[in-house]
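Exercise 7. Predict the structure of DUF2523 domain-containing protein from Glaciimonas soli.
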Amino acid sequence: MFLAELIPAIWGALAPVLGSLVGRVLLALGISFVTYQGLSVGTDALYASVQSSFNGLPSSIMSLMAYLWVDKAISTVFSAFTAALTIKLASGTSLTKMIMK
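Solution. The predicted structure, encoded as tokens:
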């Protein structure tokens, strides 16, 4: 009996806040998604530029670079850069401010 009276009271108190909160969360997620996709496109373009700069090198230097795993090192650096940007975006204060307003 008590639970039947408690649920409508809680719902009545949360209903006005819920619409605003859901809207703000969706807005923040949308902005985060667009920002991440933009940074992903920029990072991919930079990675393609770095790869294309190696095209004119002689084969002996290319084989030395392959032996030293330079391609894997460059890929690791770009992966770490993307991971750092993702973590900074996810824990950034702008996202928190948008949700908490």
